[in-house]
């Protein structure tokens, strides 16, 4: 296969990793450009958007992650690129302003450090050629501290996928990786290397959960992400819905009664819950869950919280503070800033129509506010 054909295969296979894009806004959903399949419009951990050159270095893998279509023994078109080939192709696109950054991952084709060496060498080639732009590097589970430190030194952002909210669930996904040694301990190392006041504090750290492949509940994931944000200082957490048929037959997700559509909606609800925690001041224990420990697939978590707390309402649009406004279904940050600006200018808001065109989302607020 020539370089372009290999790149097309490896870029297609990189779609399973979402740790540079999410789905909390309309422009954040997973997508690719129509012509060059390895150019992805994404939202970065700091909230900015750009086009990234997103690919794997190799899809040859020795690991048996049961949810992954690229696991050892699975039927896939296997190929690899050298660091030199990848760097050259990236720079061709960068120099004509087709992309502004690189997202680079890889399957584990031999041992973790050998794979990390190739990932890091690609970034090192680009940095030595004076590329100072955005590089997101995937940290391979089981990599040495030295390899991780080099990645952090070269990258704008790094990510190591946690995959599951605890060792019990992780064991359902993989027998070749150790949860504490290969995932939790390196996540802690990255957190220390990128902590406030450290040499690499500018580097962002993200991770990703696989949703529905094991027997985990949304409660498990939400409790885990709360600790990751509060204790490990992660910048973003992403969620990837397991799609039935992609993994091994003995995977719990293959026996689940949830449809692929249910799992995609569950992924979406987790993004909404994550947004409430990061942006709206909700605690993990405030996120409303159904009896089985999962988020409602019918109602978004903010609306569910409002339904469960009628004593909190109504909220006075002209008098109540930002924190109370943030609890109102249908009122997002943009609308709330508009409300506060109108109030500061002396304008008395009389109805939702004063806030702009009444959308389906904004209409949710009518039962929870007074003027």
Automatic annotation (TrEMBL):
UniProt keyword annotation of S-adenosyl-L-methionine present: yes
Coiled coil, from the record: none
Cofactor(s) the protein needs: [4Fe-4S] cluster
InterPro entries in the cross-refs: Aldolase_TIM, DNA_rSAM_put, Elp3/MiaA/NifB-like_rSAM, rSAM, rSAM_sf, RuvA_2-like
Species the sequence originates in: Velamenicoccus archaeovorus
Keyword S-adenosyl-L-methionine: yes
Keywords tagged on the record: Iron, Iron-sulfur, Metal-binding, S-adenosyl-L-methionine
Gene Ontology molecular-function annotations: catalytic activity; iron-sulfur cluster binding; metal ion binding
All residue ranges annotated as the Radical SAM core domain in the record: 46-274
Protein name, entry field: Orotidine 5'-phosphate decarboxylase
């Amino acid at each position: 296969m020539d370089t372009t054909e290999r790149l097309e295969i490896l870029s297609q296979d990189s779609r399973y990793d979402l740790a540079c894009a999410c789905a909390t806004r309309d422009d954040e959903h997973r997508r690719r450009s129509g012509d060059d399949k390895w150019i992805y419009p994404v939202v970065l951990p700091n909230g900015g958007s750009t086009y990234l050159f997103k690919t794997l270095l190799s899809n040859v893998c020795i690991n048996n992650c049961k949810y992954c279509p690229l696991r050892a023994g699975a039927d896939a078109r296997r190929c690899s690129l050298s660091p030199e080939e990848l760097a050259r192709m990236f720079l061709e696109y960068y120099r004509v302003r087709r992309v502004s950054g690189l997202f680079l991952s890889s399957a584990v084709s031999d041992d973790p450090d050998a794979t990390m060496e190739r990932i890091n060498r690609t970034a090192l080639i680009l940095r030595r050629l004076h590329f100072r732009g955005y590089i997101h590097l995937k940290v391979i589970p089981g990599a040495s501290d030295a390899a991780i430190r080099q990645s952090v030194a070269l990258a704008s952002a790094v990510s190591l996928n946690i995959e599951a909210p605890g060792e019990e669930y992780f064991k359902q996904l993989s027998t070749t990786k150790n949860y504490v040694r290969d995932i939790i301990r390196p996540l802690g190392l990255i957190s220390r290397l990128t902590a406030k006041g450290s040499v690499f504090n500018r580097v962002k750290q993200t991770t990703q959960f696989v949703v529905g492949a094991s027997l985990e509940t949304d409660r498990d994931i939400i409790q885990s992400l709360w600790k990751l944000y509060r204790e490990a200082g992660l910048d973003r957490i992403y969620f990837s819905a397991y799609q039935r048929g992609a993994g091994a037959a003995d995977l719990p997700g293959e026996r689940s009664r949830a449809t692929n559509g249910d799992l995609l909606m569950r992924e979406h609800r987790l993004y909404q819950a994550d947004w409430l925690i990061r942006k709206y001041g909700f605690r993990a224990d405030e996120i409303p869950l159904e009896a089985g420990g999962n988020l409602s697939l019918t109602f978004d978590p903010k609306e569910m919280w409002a339904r469960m707390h009628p004593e909190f309402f109504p909220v006075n649009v002209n008098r109540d503070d930002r924190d109370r406004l943030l609890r109102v279904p249908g009122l997002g940050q943009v609308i709330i800033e508009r409300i506060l600006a109108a109030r500061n200018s002396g304008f008395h808001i009389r109805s939702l129509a004063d806030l702009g065109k009444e959308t389906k989302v904004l209409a949710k607020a009518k039962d929870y506010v007074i003027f």
